[in-house]
Amino acid sequence: MSGDKLNLFMILAGLVVATAVFAMLFFMKAPYGRHLRRGWGPLISNYLAWIIMETPAVLVFALCFAYGTVPKNLPILLFFASWELHYVHRAFI
């Protein structure tokens, strides 16, 4: 498949899955939070789940910034550092 066809396929596949989940949720409650049910997969602690959920936001942004083409001048570095410090504090502290 060429790149454009693969992108279109992935978009359409995502739309099909999203539509199926949307329809399914009219008939059942999603098994998380207060609707938790045993037998729907492994359970992990809330603390670990929070770490797993928040870590990519910090790391992916830092990697994109480090390897991206944006100029690394003082104002941009200050905004980057401010966001990282804020998000690390919000997510982990």
Quick tags:
single chain, 93 residues, mainly alpha, 2 domains
User: Based on CA inertia axes, which overall geometry fits?
Assistant: flat
Question: Biggest sheet: strands, sense, closure?
Answer: none
Instruction: Assign the structural class, choosing from mainly alpha, mainly beta, alpha/beta, alpha+beta, or little secondary structure.
Output: mainly alpha
As a percent range, the share of strand residues is: under 5%
Ends apart, CA distance between termini: 45 Å
**Mean pLDDT, all residues:** 89
**Total strands:** 0
**pLDDT under 50 segments (min length 5)?**
none
What's the alpha carbon Rg, rounded to whole Å? 19 Å
Helix count? 3
Order of helices and strands: HHH
How helix-rich are the residues, as a percent range? Answer: 55-70%
How many domain regions? 2
Outline the structure in words.
By secondary structure, the chain is an all-alpha fold. It folds into 2 domains: 1-38; 44-93. It has 3 helices and no strands. It has helices at 3-24, 46-67, 74-92. Helix 2 runs antiparallel to helix 3 (74-92). It is flat, with a radius of gyration of 19 Å. The model has no long low-confidence stretch (mean pLDDT 89).
Summarize the structure.
The chain is 68% helix and 0% strand. It is an all-alpha fold and 93 residues long.
Helices and strands in order, then pairings?
Blueprint: H1 3-24, H2 46-67, H3 74-92
